[in-house]
Structures are given as C-alpha cells and as structure tokens.
Amino acid sequence: MAHRRRLLVIGAGPVGLEAALHALPLGYEVRVLEAGRVGENVVSWGHVPMFSPWEMNCSSQGLGILGRQGVRPFADGRAAPTGREYVARYLLPLRSCPPLLGIVQERTRVVAVSRDATLKQDRPGDRARALRPFRVLAESGVRQEIHEAEVVLDVSGTYGRTRELGNGGIPAPGEKEAATCIDRGVPDLEVPRVAARFAGRTILLVGAGHSAATSAVALAALASRHPRTRILWSFRSTRVPLYPRVPEDPLTRRDALCAGANRLAQGSDPRIEPYPGSFVESIARPRSSARARLEVILKTGGRLRRERVDRIVANVGYTPDASIHSELQVHLCYATCGPIKLAAALLGEDGGDCLSQVQPSADRLSNPEPGFYILGAKSYGRNSTFLIRAGLEQIRTVFAALAGDPRLDLDVARLGHRPKRAGAAAPAVRPPGGDRVPAARG
Ligand SMILES: Cc1cc2nc3c(=O)[nH]c(=O)nc-3n(C[C@H](O)[C@H](O)[C@H](O)COP(=O)(O)OP(=O)(O)OC[C@H]3O[C@@H](n4cnc5c(N)ncnc54)[C@H](O)[C@@H]3O)c2cc1C
Fold first, then answer.
1. What is the CATH number of domain 167-314?
2. pLDDT per residue over 144-198, tens digit each?
3. Which atom of ligand 1 is nearest to the CA of 14?
4. Beta strands in 116-212 (DSSP E)
C-alpha cells in the first residue's frame, strides 16, 4: 500500500482551515497546528464588518460539508458578516465536522521548521532536499514536540505582528514606555469599557490603511456622542483623496468606508484634525503620575509640533514572521517580506485593488524549498490587500502543483466568482502515491 504523505498546516485561520479541508480528499495525512484558537486573528478584529460578502469568504466544499450537517452559515451570500460572525457561523462549525474533526491542534505554536539531517546551506535550490521530511518544532504550553511532514503550508498570517509607529517604521523614542497607552488594533467602541478609554479624551490616530479608516470613522462617531473628544489623525500620505475609490466598487462596504474616511481626512469634522504628510518623532510619558498625558512630537512639512494626548491608536500595518522558516531555503522580497515571486507580481500591479489582482501560478507560489509554501495573508507580506478569496485560489493552484496536474480543479472558489479557465473542467484527483479518484465536490 502506498505511503500517505503527511501535510502540516501552520495556522487555523480561514485559509489554513480551507487548505486542510482540501488536502484531505487528496489522501494526505493532515495536521493543523494553531497557536491560539481556530480563527484567532479574525476574532481579534471580529467586531469589524467585513468588506467581502459571505460568498467570497467560503469555499463550495466547506459549505457542502456544513450543508450535509444541516448548518447554513448565511441566508444571503451577498451580505457581509462581521469577522466574529464569520468565525462563529463558518470556521468553528467546519472545524467541528468530519473530515476536519480532530485535525486541528489548538494552542500549539510552531516555533521553527527545518529538514531532517539537512541544514539551510545544504544543496542550494536542489529538489533532492525533498528526500528528507520537514521537522516542525511546536510548543504547547511548556511541552515541546517535533512533527514530521513531507509538505508544510505556512498560513500563519501577519495580524499579530504589528509594525512600529515611529518615523521611518522604527520605534519612536518613548514608544515602548508608552505601550499601555497604545492600541494597535481597531478598538471596539461599542463595548462601554473600551469606549470609556476614549470618550472625552484626546486621541492620536496613526496610519492610513483600511484599519485606520475604520478607526477614524468609529472615533468620529464616538466624538459626536462625547463632544469633548478630540482626535488628531496623523498619516504619511498627502494624496487627495486619501483613499482612492474603485469605480463602481462591488465591495460596497469598502466604498462607503473610503468615502467616509476621505471626508474626515479632508477636515470635514471639527473634532478630527487631519495631519497629512506627518510622522511621529517621539513620545514622552511624564513619570510624575500614572494619569499624566503623553507628549507627542509630530513632524509635519519639516516642522515639529508638540501635542499632548491621552491615548494613541496605531493602525500602521503588520509584518510577517520570517523566523519560523529561517532554517529553510525561502527567498523573500526585500521590500514586502513576502515570497519573492508573488511579491514581484504584486508590486507590478498599480492601484492595488484586491479584487483585480494577479492570479497566482504554481511557480509564483513556489520557492527554493521544495514542498514548503507560504499561503494566505502571510504570502502578501506587508502588502495589506489580501482577501480570503485570493487564498482559496492559492489553495487550488498549490494542490494542482502538488498533484502534478495543472488542470486539477477542486472548485475551491466557485462561490468567490473565480474566473473559469479553459481546460479546468472534468477534474480528477490523484491522491499522493495512489490511484486516481473522482474529485470531491461540495
Ligand atoms: C480589520 C480587518 C478587516 C479585514 N476584512 C477582510 C475582509 O472583509 N475580507 C477578507 O477577505 N479579508 C479581510 N481581512 C484580511 C484578513 O485578515 C484575511 O483575509 C484573513 O484573515 C487571512 O486568513 P489567513 O488564514 O491567511 O490568516 P489569519 O486569519 O491571520 O490566520 C492565521 C492563523 O495562524 C495562527 N498562527 C500565527 N502564528 C502561528 C504559529 N507560529 N504557529 C501556529 N499558528 C500560528 C494565528 O493564530 C491565526 O489563527 C481583514 C483584516 C483586518 C485586519
């Protein structure tokens, strides 16, 4: 009987879970190691309404499995859930159903990946490295364990690793000491305990991505209820409008958010003071009293401006953790920290609209280390335009490459309106080391 190949997934976010789901019918022995709980990162921003509707966030297989258990995550596929709803109604039920039941090992953090009896510098770029299995070191509480696998998918995201807020992306002097006064996610201002930290205070918001837009709109709403609230919004860009609109944007929530944030960035609300082209030079926390305000120096147009604020919301983006695979032959982009070939393709795009991005070829997703793939949000590195829908397409591409059949189509992203390709019909699945079997359909 043919030996079943072992496939290890790092991270049980949306893309990791879907990858595991798609590996199982292909005959892999699958294990998912998750540092926290299933959907941990999505739950961290779970109060935020998603841009993408249900039908873009779920695979047809996932919905098929849930359907057979009588679970229907949504009534209208064009409606968009909050992150929390998406985890509660889709990811968690999926984790608890066969075939994923018992596959995910939660509270287990992968620390490092290497190859058996092989060092980073051995056989550079040689496919023969694949003759040795991966050795994956994971920690679960105080326990450390080694897992072996022939294929490793690093789908560990970037969300937990926030960047520094100082000028030039390094820590501002005093940033570390002010840590307890800095929120690095999108605060949930609907929670009274959280809102109380901001209401009636002076807040510095830093950043100009979609998270910063969400925070700006939410803080403006809070300020309208608590008029003593004052918000300073610092961002590097001087572009007007700050958030370019996508003509006839099919992601209507994104469009509404951008329109609202653009108005605030242009000074439409007297309680929000925008500082375009500005940088945080330093943060000082007077030691005299725990309640003392922070003194922040902003550099704007070459001039320094001193402001006293109570709290800082730093929405300045995330960066991937390269330490996990530092003993493997992985080629990263020096600008985005994503895998080089995909990064080059993404950098070649203008505008960065996440709905009109390059389709990932197997070559773009591969790197010098055979059998090791970085997928999901982490594959985009510091580029923040990743959507789950792109991850579903990556899964299709990677499993086709692993099966050695570019026409293999698991119909992963049918509900995400993936463009059909010529020759993708009539799929058949070749399990690793086994016979051909009919493709699994949801
Ligand atoms: C505010 C906000 C709103 C967003 N809205 C949307 C949206 O509307 N639509 C959309 O498609 N995308 C949206 N995104 C992007 C979204 O985060 C991703 O599309 C999605 O979460 C990516 O899934 P993933 O599985 O690649 O990574 P993640 O969801 O980040 O999951 C990674 C998982 O890996 C685990 N992990 C990390 N390190 C380790 C380790 N060392 N060992 C083991 N496990 C580990 C984490 O705990 C986590 O569970 C949004 C992001 C933010 C911040």
1. 3.50.50.60
2. 999 999 999 999 999 989 999 999 999 999 999 999 999 999 999 999 999 999 9
3. 25
4. 134-140, 143-149, 151-154, 182-183, 202-206
Q: In whole angstroms, what is the distance from residue 34 CA to residue 24 CA?
A: 18
Asked, colleague to colleague, whether 6-160+318-438 and 167-314 share their fold, the answer is yes
pTM, two decimals, is 0.91
Separation of alpha carbons 18 and 9, rounded Å: 10
Could you tell me which CATH class the domain 6-160+318-438 is placed in? alpha beta
Place of tokens 């490459």: 401
User: CA–CA distance from 398 to each of 277, 322, 367 (Å)?
Assistant: 41, 21, 12
> How far apart are the CA of 249 and the centre of ligand 1, in A?
23
How far is CA 160 from each of CA 117, 318, 342, rounded to the nearest angstrom? 32, 7, 22
As a whole number of angstroms, the distance between CA 336 and CA 163 comes to 13
336 C-alpha to ligand 1 centroid (Å): 17
Domain-wise residue ranges, the chain: 6-160+318-438, 167-314
**Ligand 1 centre from 387 Cα, in Å?**
9
The CA angle 341-386-135, to the nearest 5 degrees, is: 60
Give the strand order in the sheet containing 143-149: 109-115, 134-140, 143-149
Atom of ligand 1 nearest to the CA of 254: 8
Tell me, using a 6 A CB cutoff, whether residue 260 lines ligand 1: no
150 CB within 6 A, ligand 1: no
Q: Whose CA is nearest to atom 20 of ligand 1?
A: 388
Using one digit for the tens of pLDDT, what is the confidence trace for 68-109?
999 999 999 999 999 999 999 999 999 999 999 999 999 999
| Alpha carbon distance 435, 75 (integer Å) | 39
The CA 332 to ligand 1 mean position distance, Å, reads 20
